[in-house]
Batch of 4 targets.
Target 1
Amino acid sequence: METCNEIFELLSAYLDHELPAVTCAEIEQHLARCPECVALERSLRSTVGLCHGYAPNQAPTPLNQQVRTQLFETYQKIIAQRNERGPS
Ligand SMILES: [Zn+2]
């Protein structure tokens, strides 16, 4: 099973629209088991459009560093909250 950090790296790569469909499927498999990453993916989707929301014929808008930092901080909060709850 992929770790959440690996998923986050995949999601980050997707911000540049680099992910092939098979990788997108891997992410979705992880999301099916990991509510924390679902929350992260939602925030990404609302920002850039992810997987199903991405229209390949549209020119993607590059994310600036501020947005990337914001997303990373969101992810860190999600992980910290889970650690506070302890292992399930
Ligand atoms: Zn996860």
Note: Residues 4, 7, 30, 34, 36-37 surround zinc ion (CB under 6 Å).
Target 2
Amino acid sequence: MKSTINQLITKHWAVFRLIGVMGIMLCLVSLMSLASNTGNKAEVSTATLVVKKDSVASVAAFKKVYRVLMSPRCMNCHPAGDVPLQGDDSHLHTMSPQRGLEGKGVYAMKCSNCHQPTNTPGKNTPPGNPNWHLPPANMKMVFEGRTAHQLAKQLMDPKQNGNKDMKKLIEHADDGLVLAGWNPGEGRTLPPMSHAEFKKAWLTWLSTGAYAPKK
Ligand code: HEC
Ligand code: HEC
């Protein structure tokens, strides 16, 4: 008698275990499909950015984009030379840290020695980001001194923009270093419009044919 009960329990345990394992697997599968769905959604939204050419709207949008690109929060990392710029007047960085091959500085003057993963509290302290660096030596992405015409052409040229296609250009609006411009640390002015407005102008410029202003 006792042994049949034991047998029953053992048998049921096997069933319970099976149900348990299946339950976990079901959860995993639904989680995975959830994750891939959100992935798909993001892709659909970028893939559905249909280019509808409109040179007037495009040029107007780029003029807004240009105002942000040329603001000190952006231009200071997109200098014409190999030394980053500082301050709202975009003067040469004190102690002249050099770009280096990868844009991360050289020898004892690596950007990350002073620029921490987050902003250092206080005035005149280094702004922070885990990836704080200049564009690399073979792809300098200069903004300083470029006219709106020149910069629009340059941004769309794969040889000068790091081989970015439309999708990558769209995504760049939310790049960590771009977002850093709107969290610049104490005592620094913000770019001339909100990040949302900038992103809208950037997308409008691209989706209307990425026309360059005449000048
Ligand atoms: C020796 C320390 C040090 C090193 C090395 C250094 N920086 Fe800085 N950086 C600073 C400090 C301090 C400030 C803030 C200066 C101020 O606000 O007066 C600053 C500010 C800046 C700014 C201005 C930010 C803005 O919004 O105006 C940029 C851009 C910058 N650094 C880029 C770099 C890059 C790129 C490198 C590496 C190639 C680098 N720095 C290396 C200390 C350093
Ligand atoms: C700490 C330095 C730094 C700051 C500050 C910075 N950038 Fe950049 N930017 C980079 C680097 C490095 C790259 C190249 C990396 C890449 O392409 O992913 C880059 C690339 C770009 C590109 C792509 C260029 C091209 O030719 O396609 C754009 C657009 C851009 N930045 C816009 C901005 C804007 C807008 C701001 C200000 C809101 C800004 N950046 C601030 C370092 C910076």
Note: The chain has eight helices and four strands.
Target 3
Amino acid sequence: MQPAQQRLNIIGCGKAGRAIARLFVQQQLFTLGAIANRSMRSSGQAVAFVGAGEAVQDHPAAMGAAALWLIGTGDDAIAPAAQVLAESGVLRAGDVVFHLSGATPSSALDACRRLGAFTASVHPVKNFSDPAVAARSFSGTWCGCEGDASALAVLEPAFAALGARLFRIDARYKALYHGGGAFACNFIPVLIELAMRCEERAGIARETALAMFEPIARETLDAVFRQGIAPAFAGPISRGDAGSVRRHLTAMAEFDPRVSALYAGLGEIGLDLVTSLRRVEPARIEATRAAMHSPAAASGASAP
Ligand SMILES: NC(=O)c1ccc[n+]([C@@H]2O[C@H](COP(=O)([O-])OP(=O)(O)OC[C@H]3O[C@@H](n4cnc5c(N)ncnc54)[C@H](OP(=O)(O)O)[C@@H]3O)[C@@H](O)[C@H]2O)c1
């Protein structure tokens, strides 16, 4: 059977599911069958967004047979939804069941696998907070895949047809793989927020501080991808300037010890970068390390 004639049912069609389903339909890769969210209203909204399919409430038994099943619920609901699907009587051996989670292995679908379904996960490294924008900009998105070869033989060409850049991930390391993404993107707003708290404490208005940091923050990210990570690392730690580091920490510890602790923890990894470049003498690196861990800084006492 041609992929375009294969029917896709979706259990849990929220932000990510809507964007992916709209693309599958637009590219005529699959025929959309039924969409079942928790509420009928939400299922209807998903059908309207995707532009195809039939809205169903909650239970897979009402969805009819399909060659492909996407379980696009939140991560914690994937295994329970797979269990309900397996017990519904509608799943057939040879059907493909997949999810989109980066932190959850495809083994969350084992209830379906035990019935002879082929299971996999395809994790798009993308922010789907606005599904319409995500669908428009999906081409070029990296997608981490793992699971049964028979499932991936169907899913990988379909995602490739959407312009995805596919790579394989080892299911054992998915939590680490996905957790790493927190540093690459999720925590960037948190780092900016830390900067805002320091500036506000220093008497600089939040809007001024945000505007002041916008150019340098953008330049730094550009430098990471243009020059490399270690060469893009600037500031006192990168120069082995122990005195400034001690003053930073002392000032931060005085208003919020959590901020100074984060500075010291991130600074340790920064020193790994400095060491790798071999541009700063080892003695200066060690002095900077000592400044990051000095009791004076931790207690908030005056720096020399
Ligand atoms: N959002 C992202 O940026 C992103 C990026 C990459 C991967 N992902 C992955 O994509 C998956 C979905 O994430 P999302 O952000 O799209 O979540 P979401 O917007 O919260 O959507 C989840 C959908 O699942 C439905 N649902 C929840 N439990 C259900 C159940 N037991 N039966 C039927 N439907 C159920 C919800 O229905 P109601 O609307 O009725 O509540 C909702 O429509 C997750 O595995 C996530 O890790 C997300």
Note: Residues 11-17, 36-39, 42, 58, 72-75, 77, 81, 99-102, 123-124, 126-128 surround NAP (CB under 6 Å).
Target 4
Amino acid sequence: MANRSSSRAPNIIVPFVLFSLIAIACAEVFFEERFDDGWEKRWVKSDWKKDENVAGEWNYTSGKWNGDPNDKGIQTSEDYRFYAISAEFPEFSNKDKALVFQFSVKHEQKLDCGGGYMKLLNGEVDQKKFGGDTPYSIMFGPDICGYSTKKVHAILNYNGTNHLLKKDVPCETDQLTHVYTFILRPDATYSILIDNDEKKSGSLYSDWDLLPPKKIKDPEAKKPEDWDDKEYIPDPEDKKPEGYDDIPEEIPDPDAKKPEDWDDEEDGEWTAPTIPNPEYKGPWKPKKIKNPNYQGKWKAPMIDNPDFKDDPELYVYPNLKYVGVELWQVKSGTLFDNVLVCDDVEYAKKLAEETWGKNKDAEKAAFEEAEKKREEEEAKADPVDSDAEDEEDDDADDADDADAEVKKDDTAEIETETESDDVKDEL
Ligand SMILES: *[C@@H]1O[C@H](CO)[C@@H](O)[C@H](O)[C@H]1NC(C)=O
Ligand SMILES: *[C@@H]1O[C@H](CO)[C@@H](O)[C@H](O)[C@H]1NC(C)=O
């Protein structure tokens, strides 16, 4: 109302100011963490995996390369470790509004196996015990392992069961900061953005199996007896040519000659060896023609699924209350920053621009500088390699790859263990 009446005001500046005030008032930020001073009071490090001595430490840092050394986040700092940390915010429900979940992540370690995702949790959580088995509402973000897994996870918990996104959304694999955004709307649509660029969008109904399918094949339907599903049939007009069966399969080799020293009396009568007859075409078969009565492949008709019951609140998470990171990492160096939970897509977009967008060019330049230095130092440390031709460099790369493979195998067991937890959850 205020907006409408003010738009009639003669001064055009007034409605503009009012409108932006309303826009800001409408945006609700449930949680925003830029990891400035005091972040440690807001986040609780879990004791999960501590007694097994495999709980990793976080490093509060802007990383080895960055666009602003004062803009810090939290980075995994130990290899082969589990990480679990979470923060609480005032409980809310996303009913009737958009839910925007966004954060930035940078894998400085050239991640070969590990996650870079975050979770939204609901209800009451003992943050000191937060770990891989703690139920969550949404798990979202990149996951990399070996050559096969390089994807954005978007796992939704519905009615106590975790459901994986059925669509493939590749994640970023370089060593720079990227912003991952998950948007869930009251019309049960979603979008996944990387660096403010939409990579995937669709419906909760089709891209996850949250509910049973709306339509199913009629289980009662049967293929009619007289259904003709032969696409080709023998041509009834085609006739076997006269004399076809008289063509022999083999004939005497016309090029064979009786050897000069062949003695009919001693060696018997000479006969030429046989060869396959080029005229012989095998047993006669009529030509195939398109079946004029072809009815197509039979398909059962689709009917309404009696087990489908729509849930107009499919997208609703009624008591979201925590955001957390729970990861296993083979190689550490993943840096999280600028975590946002809000109901305003534009606000999230702006935050990404003001942080990642502002710093990305300087970060890239710093990264390239660091890479150059690293290569120079490697060359100094190994002068043979620096004199060597490209060939030898390739060998060195191969050795690195092999090393990564071995590490992957080492951790395969632990990895499947954590993976199977997720799978278990899904069942
Ligand atoms: C934290 O990160 C900085 C920047 O990369 C690094 O110099 C420092 O050694 C790290 N500290 C730990 C404990 O890993
Ligand atoms: C929710 O889960 C319960 C128990 O597992 C089940 O009986 C019910 O049908 C489920 N509801 C929906 C909408 O999936």
Note: Helices lie at 2-6, 13-26, 39-42, 204-207, 264-267, 345-381, 383-387, 390-426.
